[in-house]
Design a protein that fits this description.
The complex is a heterotrimer of chains A (about 625), B (about 110) and C (about 475). With about 625 residues, chain A is mainly alpha-helical. Chain A has 26 helices and two strands. Chain A has a two-stranded antiparallel ribbon. In chain A, strand 1 and strand 2 form a beta hairpin. Chain A is globular. Chain B has about 110 residues and is mainly α. Helix content of chain B is about 75%, strand content about 5%. Chain B has three helices and two strands. In chain B, strand 1 and strand 2 form a beta hairpin. In chain B, helix 1 packs antiparallel against helix 2 and helix 2 packs antiparallel against helix 3. With about 475 residues, chain C is mostly helical. In chain C, a hairpin with a 4-residue loop joins strand 1 and strand 2. Chain C has a two-stranded antiparallel sheet. The two termini of chain C are about 30 Å apart. The chains are: A mainly alpha (about 625), B mainly alpha (about 110), C mainly alpha (about 475).
């Protein structure tokens, strides 16, 4: 098992090295084959590791080599396989593999085909490090590594500077979070003398006197950056300029959930910091509402999904904030399935439309792309939380636990998820129903995507249907003798949830939610199918509130005006005035003083011997008289 | 008891050499002709020589007199070199007026 | 004895170069530096075996003043000697396809400088240290003056006077300590003892003098204004020697000549230096962000990195010093890499103004990949050499001053901004007339860059061998202080 564990991250790394170093000599097919197979091998390895873990119930660590060692500080590259990491491993390698396969068809005509798979493999490698590391520093390697891969893949079509700007924005915003993470790492090492999860997270090691709130806040700042929470969320929608499989893999299923992984991993610390928990819950719900409301008015198929991701991530953080770690991780898993499905489905649509992403120009795709339609429909139902699909179970668990803690947060969370339902069905109806609104050439071009793209869609759709049953609701489960396997599996790391609700409340909540969801679906149907309302054109006049939401609350503009512009202005000032004139001026001033002094003093050197002698004699007389006086 | 050498008070020697020295200094300061300045320098040198001999005699230490002989020898050599330089200056500049010779002006 | 040979090999090669013709100059220089590298490895082996006897050389020099020609190598100097011995052949090799007038003199001066640098890193006598310190300045002065770009006289003059001015304070401090010692000797141990015996006030003055001298050399804000112009004006091999190795003289000087010399003063006032260094980091990073010229950007980013090293060293703990040492190593490699890249671009596009470039990635993906790795190391991405050093440094500073470390950490954000901006402006986007026909890299350029990239990733993934070299000596140093 030791060897297999080591091989899991090694395969994608090898895939990357092959694709990066000798790609010129390989055909496209070979590159695709190597890339997919390397991830498939990882997946198989993960499965073996996973079942071994399920059967033996024993987490284990495997040391690869000593990495950084200085004084009392020691961080080795060691892997930790336990329930939490194995769940994430499964998601990453499983969905990773499907998306690799999908990409083969999606990217086949692109010049950067080989490059694309190289980065994708590298991403998988870093993501695996992130979740496999047994200490914070290894997690940090993965953390930064995936950020870099995300940077490269967002800016994949590097000829357009818009893409490069988005990539840079993503990297820099992530880096802001990373600084928080880094500070947290330093604080943890200084206070607990270790970065190993198995060492410093033991309850006895954590003293109440240590600055737990500060540490957890810093960790959360790290999570904010990576998981796109307020105020660091604006990079994620921009990141949609990358290829769609990238959006599915990195910006929906795996990388953006790293923040949730990190907090779930260090939940012992967070549970001891109630203030931080409250903060996380508020940020989470605010992000969920903000993302969902912006999503209502977006017209770019990928942007809608991006804001939906922001909002779903917000819900996960809300769950973390109320201590429902398992529910959050559960939602990560189900969300990975249906959001990857939706993104890949949108990729299939974009592929079929020949690159068009504006839903105002789509419509009626149902009959042209049946497989895509059905899978997309399943994804939409799943994300809306209609039973018995995956999204229902996870979202329900989150909302139930929130309900047990805080009724206001529950209502807000409910509003966010109802908005999700509305914009997802809006997307579905506008894309697949009604009449086609694009050009004739586009209509002529319309076709169902090839098998390599639809098969992953189908598999993901199946997963989106069934995955929810691994986390069957507690109270209801007890009544029906269905075990919540997921909670139980994660309990060694996370512990059982403290928010218990009664069977009646649980069923009541489910019913209310489901009814509300169906009402919203019907409203959406009424608006977009019966009335055939279309989103307004780009520069149409809107009411102030709508306008505000339509322009994403002007967050980007505010950041630009109040953060980046002043920052650049200050830097320019430092460069031009302080550095060139003040500091260098003082230095040059010393030089000038010397020169001026020399120029004036040289006048004493008149060349007149009489004057010299006069000076000598008067100096002598002066000296003698001083002696005489003394 | 007043210090004296062969009946002449030591003070007179000191006064004489001081006067000579001052004449030399003033000469150097006031006159502009290089030759005369040169002579004035010699005068200062000799004023010091005189003082040296007087003290030597007074303390009964011959070292001072030996020194004077050395100084005279060096002065002779110096005069030779100095006059040679003056000659060259005169040939080049056609003057020995120090007011004119101020090419070292800074 | 081996150490002496290390100093003599480049010296000898330099003299051979001075008398040899232009034709053979490159070959001789490369062979000489490679022999030097081989010897450095031999020394490393000896050091690992604990063979101190073979590494130490001490004889009387100016007996009446208690000055010795005393050199030795411990882990700390070993790392820097290794860096010098490693980078010099790379620098020599990197200038192979460029024709410099009188190249034999240029290479000779570079080797002379190498000799002096190794002297600085190994000397165990205050006076000898000062001699080597100034000796290293002379060749670089001529390199900049003779082969520099337009307007070099003024810039080089400022550089020379400024650094000389700084080091005079170091000489003052050394003489002051020397006068305090009862034995009247410049031997480092004697100086340590007499300096430690001084009162806090005196120690503080000595500290100030040393810090001034080293701050100019590193350079640290506000003593940095000579650096950007010198870096951009000097010929490429000169800049690489300056930024890659010479700036480490000062940081090395802190470890060897300041921390153990006046530990109480460092304990008391070290925080001020850390704060100054952190200001320097942020200041230089901000300025780097608005630079238009790539070379200027590298110069300012170099200030930021070196300042971080200084902050870490003054934290006076194992993480800070070990991190500082490894960051010196990686900064050397990075700086050489970045300047080499800047040179490649300049030779082809005849400008290093970033806004005029762009789209090179599409024309030359190989170059783009190599460039990218160097950029990543400069922004301290894990698994590159830059990360190991910066992480340990920030951790070290954190242990002594959490707030300062948090601000120092801003460099990872600002660094990302300016480095990625540069990469984007130069490599990404669409091509223009300047970059459309960007020629392929020559074999020699590829080899140089690949070596640098291998070093960056190799050390980043497995830094343990390097950390092991210094670990013992750093522990001894810290024990001696406490």
């Amino acid at each position: 098992m030791e060897l297999i564990t080591k091989l899991i991250p090694l395969f994608p790394l090898l895939g990357f090295i092959i694709a990066a170093l000798i790609n010129r000599k390989l055909s496209k097919n070979t590159v695709a084959y190597i890339a997919c197979v390397s991830v498939l091998f990882s997946f198989i390895g993960t499965l073996m590791v996973f079942f071994n873990l399920v059967n033996h119930h024993s987490a284990y660590e495997i040391k690869v080599f000593d990495w950084i060692q200085a004084g009392s500080f020691n961080a080795s590259l060691t892997f930790l396989i336990d329930p939490l990491s194995s769940v994430f491993l499964l998601v990453i390698t499983g969905i990773g593999f499907l998306i690799h396969v999908f990409s083969v068809g999606y990217m086949i005509h692109d010049d950067g085909f080989r490059r694309f798979f190289a980065y994708l493999n590298l991403f998988i490698f870093f993501m695996l490090l992130l979740v496999m590391g047994n200490n914070l520093l290894v997690t940090f390697i993965g953390w930064e590594g995936v950020g870099f891969c995300s940077f490269m893949l967002i800016g994949f079509w590097y000829k357009e500077n818009k893409n490069n700007d988005a990539a840079k924005k993503a990297f820099v915003m992530n880096r802001i979070g990373d600084l928080g993470f880094l500070i947290a790492i330093c604080l943890i090492f200084i206070n607990y003398n270790s970065l190993n999860y198995t060492t410093f997270l033991t309850a006895g090691n954590i003293s109440i006197d240590s600055p737990i709130t500060l540490i957890t806040i810093c960790l959360f700042i790290g999570a904010m950056g990576k998981s796109a929470q307020i105020p660091l969320f604006t990079w994620l929608p921009d990141a949609m300029v990358g290829p769609t499989p990238v959006s599915a893999l990195i910006h929906a299923a795996t990388m953006v959930t790293a923040g949730i992984y990190m907090i779930a991993r260090t939940n012992v610390l967070f549970s001891m910091a109630p203030d931080t928990m409250m903060f996380i819950a508020y940020i989470g719900i605010a992000t969920a509402l903000l993302g969902a409301s912006i999503g209502l008015f977006q017209n770019d198929i990928k942007k809608v999904l991006a804001y939906s991701t922001v909002s779903q991530l917000g819900l996960m953080f809300l769950a973390l904030g109320v201590g429902a770690y398992t529910a959050a991780v559960f939602h990560v898993v189900t969300h990975a399935f249906f959001k990857a499905l939706l993104f890949l489905g949108s990729g299939s649509v974009i592929h079929g439309m020949g690159g068009e992403q504006d839903i105002r120009k789509m419509g009626g795709l149902k009959k042209h792309m049946p497989t895509t339609y059905i899978t997309f429909l399943i994804g939409t139902i799943a994300i809306s939380g209609i039973p018995p699909l995956a999204g229902f179970f996870s979202k329900d668990q989150i909302l139930a636990e929130v309900f047990a803690q805080n009724k206001v947060l529950f209502i807000l969370g409910m509003i966010a998820s109802l908005m999700t339902v509305f914009y997802m069905f809006r997307l579905l109806f506008l894309t697949f129903f009604g009449k086609f609104r694009g050009t004739h050439e586009q209509e002529h071009h319309l076709h169902e995507s090839p098998k390599s793209m639809t098969i992953p869609l189908v598999i993901l759709a199946i997963l989106a249907v069934v995955a929810g049953f691994i986390g069957f609701p507690h109270a209801l489960g007890e009544a029906m003798h269905i075990h919540n396997w997921f909670d139980h599996f994660l309990s060694p790391i996370i512990g059982e949830s403290l928010n218990h609700i009664s069977l009646n409340t649980e069923i009541g909540l489910m019913l209310v939610t489901t009814v509300l969801i169906i009402i919203v679906v019907l409203i959406a149907k009424n608006v977009f199918i019966t009335k055939e309302t279309l989103p307004v054109a780009e520069n149409a006049k809107l009411s102030p509130l709508k306008n505000l939401v339509y322009h994403k609350f002007y967050v980007d503009e505010v950041y630009d005006k109040f953060l980046s512009k002043p920052f650049v202005a200050i830097s320019e000032f430092l460069n031009k005035v302080i550095d060139n004139q003040l500091v260098d001026g003082i230095v040059n001033g010393f030089g000038k003083i010397t020169i001026v002094a020399g120029q004036n003093l040289r006048l004493l050197q008149s060349g007149n011997i009489g004057f010299y002698i006069f000076a000598i004699v008067s100096a002598l007389i002066l000296i003698f008289s001083i002696f005489l006086v003394n | 008891m007043e210090a004296s050498i062969n009946g002449v008070s030591l003070n007179y020697y000191i006064i004489l050499s001081t006067v000579l020295f001052c004449i030399g200094v003033l000469g150097v300061m006031i006159r502009r002709n290089a030759i005369i300045m040169f002579m004035c320098i010699e005068l200062m040198l000799n004023a010091v020589n005189l003082l040296m001999v007087a003290f030597s005699r007074y303390f009964g230490d011959t070292n001072g007199q030996v020194f004077v002989v050395f100084i005279m020898a060096v002065a002779a050599a110096e005069v030779a070199v100095g006059l040679a330089i003056l000659m060259m200056i005169y040939r080049n500049a056609k003057t020995s007026d120090t007011e004119v010779l101020n090419q070292l002006k800074g | 004895m081996l150490t002496l040979i290390l100093i003599l090999i480049p010296l000898l090669t330099a003299f051979i170069l001075f008398v040899s013709g232009k034709k053979l100059a490159k070959t001789i220089a490369l062979i000489g530096t490679l022999i030097e590298l081989a010897f450095a490895v031999l020394v490393l082996v000896n050091l690992k075996q604990g063979n101190v006897q073979a590494l130490t050389f001490k004889c009387n020099w100016i007996q009446s003043l208690g000055i010795y020609f005393s050199i030795t190598i411990d882990g700390i100097s070993m790392l820097l000697v290794l860096l010098t011995a490693l980078l010099t052949p790379i620098i020599v090799y990197s200038s192979f396809n460029k024709e410099y007038s009188n190249s034999h003199v240029l290479f000779g001066l570079m080797l002379l400088m190498q000799s002096a640098l190794i002297g600085v890193f190994t000397s165990m006598d205050g006076f000898l240290f000062y001699i080597f310190w100034e000796l290293a300045l002379i060749p670089i002065y001529f390199i900049c003056l003779i082969w520099g770009a337009e307007g070099r006289q003024k810039i080089t003059f400022k550089f020379f006077i400024y650094t000389l001015f700084g080091s005079l304070f170091m000489l003052l401090a050394l003489i002051y300590i020397y006068l305090q010692s009862p034995v009247k000797s410049f031997d480092i141990q004697v100086l340590y003892q007499s300096a430690r015996a001084m009162g806090l006030n005196q120690q503080a003055w000595v500290l100030a003098a040393f810090v001034l001298a080293f701050a100019v050399k590193m350079p640290l804000f506000p003593f940095h204004t000579w650096q950007p112009k010198t870096y951009t004006n000097a010929p490429m091999p000169g800049v690489m020697m300056l930024g890659g190795i010479m700036s480490k003289m000062a940081t090395f000087g802190i470890i060897r000549w300041v921390l153990p010399m006046v530990p109480q003063a460092v304990e008391q006032y070290g925080n001020y230096v850390i704060v100054l260094a952190v200001i320097s980091i942020i200041y230089a990073s901000c300025i780097a962000i608005v630079q238009k010229d790539f070379k200027f950007l590298i110069a300012y980013s170099s200030i930021a990195h070196i300042s971080l090293i200084a902050a870490g060293l003054f934290a006076m703990n194992a993480q800070g010093i070990q991190g500082g040492l490894i960051e010196m190593f990686s900064h050397g490699i990075n700086t050489v890499g970045l300047f080499f890249i800047a040179d490649i671009i300049f030779n082809r596009a005849h400008t290093s103004e970033m806004a005029k470039l762009g789209g090179i990635r599409g024309v030359n993906s190989q170059f783009s990949f190599l460039f990218l790795v160097v950029v990543l190391s400069a922004v301290a991405l894990p698994f590159t050499t830059g990360f190991v050093g910066e992480f340990l440094l920030i951790l070290g500073v954190f242990e002594s001053n959490g707030i300062a470390a948090s601000f120092a950490g801003l460099s990872i954000i600002l660094g990302a901004i300016y480095m990625l901006r540069a990469f984007q402006l130069i490599m990404l986007g669409d091509t223009n007339s300047l970059t459309l026909h960007f020629p392929k890299l020559t074999k020699q350029e590829i080899i140089t860059l690949v070596i640098i990239v291998i070093l960056i990733i190799g050390i980043g993934v497995y830094p343990k061998p390097l950390l092991d070299i210094t670990e013992n000596s750093v522990n001894i140093l810290l024990q001696g202080i406490k």
